[in-house]
DNA sequence: GACCAGTGCTTCGAACTCGAAGCACTGCGG
DNA sequence: CCGCAGTGCTTCGAGTTCGAAGCACTGGTC
């Protein structure tokens, strides 16, 4: 019989396993560094990074949750912690009363600036040391389309809430 | 001044972010499928997979924890769940009374066989659909050395326990 | 203007995670 | 043989995660 539409061959299986392992190991190393350098979790760091990059230093909650691939309730929890630590503020969104706009504070930007060098050092040493400049480019060229492909698929977290039976 | 030893250029930053996003999105999609197909978490699935692949269907606890990049205490917890579900057994290791050998049961193998097709379908669709066969090969060629490089670095989980002040 | 499905965020409870501390055993030095 | 640092796993407590349910508001229809 013919192969199923998306069968996974041994090479792909190896790539898949390596991807999972690499991201796990990398994440673990990063968490160590962030904890020591600024008492931040990786999720918190990612939130601050996204805000730091954003126009006005602001984003909506849902936007952030999607960007860092985290549940909405989990983001609410972490936003609470970050707000308590004075690293972000939460204000009602001007154009939509339901929405909450999260904004990074000066203290938040300062903390990012403080931990970023060590962060980059870890990423450089763990992830890019065995890769040439060309390799890095190739890796980026491979992963960006995959990311876009995954993002294009309807995210489960945004699935419509079912009221009755779905079928 | 010269660049620091492991500075991260914009291309690398993009690759790094894409890697984190891709692994997060992939993991999320996989968790959905595993939950629906066999009421397994991704960690549990990985444990069973590693055991299924292993000689005799057996591995030591520490080996497993390292392989799937999970804390030892977390693995103890999950091993408890899997044992209760009849998917693995835990026995004292013959050559080292301290050690615990984990073995997959027939039920465990059956469960893996049951969820694997759907799992591969998800991985194929999410991760490999936008990649040619050649791309997949390239991705594997890039990630495997990175994995080996990360593994070569002393894993934090295996760091010697400090008894007094470290320095 | 009143309805009402849809959306944005938070609350809630249960489950899972981690590191530190603890216990049991190993294997080397004397 | 005994002591003792080192290792393998589990226990423990605190913190974090998720999805489901709940609340508040929006934007369409009539």
From TrEMBL, chains A, B:
Region (Disordered): 145-167
Name of the protein: MarR family transcriptional regulator
Domain of life: Bacteria
Any matching Pfam family: MarR_2
PROSITE patterns linked to this entry: HTH_MARR_2 (PS50995)
Taxon lineage: Bacteria, Bacillati, Actinomycetota, Actinomycetes, Pseudonocardiales
InterPro entries reported for this sequence: HTH_MarR-typ, MarR/SlyA-like, WH-like_DNA-bd_sf, WH_DNA-bd_sf
Stored SUPFAM superfamilies: Winged helix' DNA-binding domain
Ranges where the HTH marR-type domain occurs: 12-148
């Amino acid at each position: 019989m013919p192969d199923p539409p998306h069968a996974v061959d041994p090479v792909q299986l190896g790539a898949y396993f390596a991807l999972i392992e690499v991201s796990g190991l990398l994440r673990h190393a990063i968490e160590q560094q962030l904890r020591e350098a600024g008492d931040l979790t990786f999720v918190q760091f990612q939130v601050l990074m996204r805000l730091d990059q954003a126009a006005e230093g602001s984003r909506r909650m849902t936007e952030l949750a999607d960007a860092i691939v985290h549940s909405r309730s989990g983001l609410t929890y972490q936003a609470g912690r970050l707000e308590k630590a004075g690293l972000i503020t939460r204000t009602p969104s001007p154009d939509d009363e339901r929405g909450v706009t999260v904004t990074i504070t000066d203290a938040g930007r300062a903390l990012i600036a403080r931990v970023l060098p060590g962060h980059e050092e870890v990423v450089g040493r763990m992830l890019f040391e065995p890769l040439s400049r060309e390799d890095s480019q190739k890796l980026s060229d491979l992963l960006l389309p995959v990311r876009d492909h995954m993002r294009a698929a309807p995210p489960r977290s945004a699935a419509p809430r079912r009221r009755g039976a779905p079928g």
